[in-house]
Amino acid sequence: MTTCSKKLDALPPYIFTRIKALAAQAAAAKLDIIDLGMGNPDLPTPPHIVDRLIDTVKNHPRTHRYPQSKGMPRLRKAIASWTKKRFDVDLNPESEVLALVGSKEGVAHLCAAYLDPGDVALVPVPTYPVHLNGVFLAGGTVHPMPLTPENKFMPDFGKVPDDVLKRAKIMFLNYPNNPTAAVVEDPNFLKETIRFAKKHDLLVAYDNPYCELTFDGYVAPSILQFEGARDVAVEYNSFSKTYNMAGWRIGWVCGDKKLLAPLEKFKAFVDYGAPSFIQLAAAAALEGPQDCVTELAKVYQARRDYFVGELNKIGWPTPLPKGTMYVWTPLPESLRKMGSLAFAEKLVKETGVVCTPGVGFGEEGEGYVRFALVAHNDRLYDAILRIKKLLREAEGKTPARKTK
Q1: For 162-290, where are the alpha helices, taking DSSP H only?
Q2: Which of 50, 130, 365, 404 could form a disulfide with 126 if both were Cys (CB 3.0 to 4.6 A apart)?
């Protein structure tokens, strides 16, 4: 029997697939599931975007045909206009914007377009899994740059060995960060990133899909705002989180045409792009009123305030993030020795609450778990009660019983 490639076979099961399987097992055992695992928005796509999709599908049958792989001119112009308004960055929509079938696809395809066997990608870890797996599937090698509380979850470029830098071609960065929720507080970090990339001939893939989900007055930057960035950096963004369009599978990448050209060429061979009716609805999202985005950030901030506040009240010290839809927190002291995967399994099996183990984002994520704030406060309240019970049992304060 023909087997899969050695590269694919060497990868473990995708972390969210594994967590979903555990949740399914818990549901089969009649537990009420509160899924805070995957960053899968629970709120609906804004009505004006949905209305545009319905009208286009119903009344414009030409949009049912093959789309343009690089994206429709209407969408690319909308992206360029939005980027100008948001970051004061000028883009040529014809040559400096590519539409993607979600930014995850675009990241993996960038690796395939740029990396040869033996090439190195510098990846801050813990990280969004495709930053690791995309490199591996392209035949490249990952050099991890550890993100720790001591360095405020920012990579230390000075610790990358010279022999690694000689083989490195790509460096990934992602702020506001998934999974740690760290943000770029000091713009000098991005200026240093650009200098470092130029010195070592690196392509910086700046993954920025959470730039609109920020709190407490913090405003996330674009790397393309900074002088010299166009020489070394491309930037990814997505409709998934900003407009609750995760299932629509639409995103973009922008930057200098010379840097985008290999990815555009690769995509022409392997996909036709997102459906035209989705591209036009995405354009309507960017062109239409943005109060829905402001309100969404307020919802996540309120959920953050409640959930983090309650975790701290029950004795689980947890920092307050300034961005994303995630809470990244070290395991409770009483359960730290068991590791993040075993803890996540225990939590879902005994309480029905789903979280993501930190080790699923790379070995450097061990000792942490990530909660996604994708449930309303009533469900977060229920989750806190169940977590509190689990912690009390671990501390030996109450007899162990499963929550029904």
Answers
A1: 162-165, 188-200, 257-270, 276-287
A2: 365
